[in-house]
Amino acid sequence: MILDAEVFERDDKVYMSKICPTHGECEELYFGSYQMYKKFSTYWVDGKGAHAPNVMIDKCSCPNNCGLCSNHLSHSGLANMIVTNRCDLTCWYCFFYVKKGLEGAYMYEPDHTQVRGMMKTLKAERPIPGNSIQITGGEPMLREDIADVIKIMKEEGVDHVQMNTNGIRHAMDPEAAREVRLAGCNNLYLSFDGVTARTNPKNHWEIPYALDSCRKTGTTVVFVPTVIKSINDHELGGIIRYAQKNMDVVHAVNFQPVSLTGRMGKGEREKYRITVPDCIQRIEEQTNGEVTVDDWFPVPSCMPLTNVIEAFSSKPKYELSIHFACGAGTYIFEDAETKKFVPLTKFCDIQGMLELFEDKAEEIRSGKNKYFTMLEVVRKLKGFVDTKKQPAGLDLAKMFGNILMKRSFESIGSWHVKGLFLGMMHFQDKYNEDLERLQRCDIHYLTPDLRIVPFCAFNVIPEWYRDRIQKKYSITVEEWEQREGVKLEDGLYRGLMRRGAGDELAAGCAKSQMFHDAAQATM
Hints:
By secondary structure, this protein is α/β, with parallel strands linked by helices.
């Protein structure tokens, strides 16, 4: 049921309250800092939306018929394609993998024709054809034909293919890692929940080997920690330090505060619930103030850069127009001498630069010569950078200038080579779903019925979207087992790298090599 809700401040936190006529009042923590909420809200902006919607609706009825509908306000920034719902792990907090024995369980693995059809749907998006795809699951590397799936995606014209994976097969089978890289997978979106075995039992022992495979194949890595309060929120700084030790291959850490699925009482939700500001505050504490609360900006703060490039090009350009409460980010660089982090905000006037972009975009739209205006922008960029505080080997003004003048996918990629991106993305759940956020979502799922469904409709309301759609294109687990000649449980990972590791490694926590590396980076 769609309910009216009040979003309000209390004790410098933001809460959501709604009343169900059947179940009564539900109050939920929405955003852990009202001050940050106010700052981020200044970047609220609507995007271009879907100019070629797959679902035509005269009057907004969100979220009853997603796909994208004519009322959606953002194009696909990143499209997800589920290639299997099998997984070799059974993580207790995961919202999606096939569980044998459950009523209604199904095996979903789209065939090559369906994959190609979904990709054509993405590329047919207007005004911005989809250009970035994430292969997800389940565990994509369980598909023996995953390299062929990637080749189809590249054939259909996307520039960027990343894989959401636990990295276990990359660790165990370097040749498989090489095959997917050659097929066109640029990046691993690598699950990584902590630097100890206690916080990250799923792949603590395998991560170093997976990183090794990525080094050898030229695959870049984004660490993706699912952050759960009382479970691993004390290790956010350690995760960043471990990324710092591996910056030759790890170019980003994207924290995901947990989405709470299933029925949970208020006390249990309060135990596990953590929001974007809570994570940011912990990072400041756990990096000894090297990365502060003030260093973070909401995702739509990028829009002025898009606007000036778009005004110059006279063509619609890729934009990040999601709701300000959905996510945040910052760039940090390592000082070559002290090994300490230097956030972008410490040597660049970001706010001033964004205001310049917005002003010049308006001037071009008003008829001013766009070439002279862009030259003026590039000339003024150096004035926003304190070169004395800028890390050695970095020329920020030049990097911005390349993005503005070349306006290419490759010019934006240079950012990730020079620094470490820290991101936050808080996906919604049934307790905190906000339709104002949903209508601006730009992380979408491709489905075999040729719809494009926003993340927080697809997974938050699986009864309408994920399960309903995928069941139509699935077979039962029993049928799959008979066809393949194997049992579903045969694909579970048995922790082979943990056997014979010895007490020191098996003990995991303070004794593990990963923990040691993270601690060394702070010295």
